[in-house]
Amino acid sequence: MPVYGYCRISTLQQNIERQVRNIAAAYPAAHIVREVYTGTACRGRQELDKLLHVVQPGDTIVFDSVSRMSRSAEEGCALYEALYNRGVTLCFLKEPHINTDTYKQALQRQVSSSPETGSAATDCFVSGIMDALNRYTADLAKEQIRLAFAQAQKEVDDLHQRTREGILTARLNGKQIGQTPGRKLTIKKSAPCKEQIKKYSRDFDGTLTDADCIKLIGIARNTYYKYKRELREELTRNMES
To answer: pTM to 2 decimals?
Structure first.
């Protein structure tokens, strides 16, 4: 049966390869699915959604940790239960105690609740005790799963809180957080690209069309027109001053 390794990072600054290495070391044949995603992104977890539509009963999905599976404890528990009921095996490298195989074993250890002692009263009493023990076993297994997802959510919430507190402290101390208002961000590659646009574009000092400039400079169409617009704005400001 296919084995999938799902790896997710929340920002472009993070490195996804650590998750990939961990999963590949434990499951060398796993097909790795990569996703760059933030919990507040409107587009959702596209790669995970695709994977959930592809997996079949008997397939396995491996996560580096439960935090890679969901953005909240409630969502994680619901998704876990849905995949378990579909017959999909879930493995969490950092929380193996809540793997679906472990959960299944806990449920299979339940004892028979149909004793036959020859006494109706005794059978009823023992059956009630066994039912209670079985419910306790099932509830305990589910609680372990809920706690794992809750802990993952708490760690994320704590990180966000520490970040907010750090930003507030820095602002109270007079430090500038983020880009100064009114100041444009200068990308290192923009300067040489703009120089080439001024040199080659017929709208400035050159003779080439926009299409030819884009091919010559080797930049994306949207980026080219963005730089060209900024050049015109700079020229207008210089003329006015």
So the answer is: 0.58
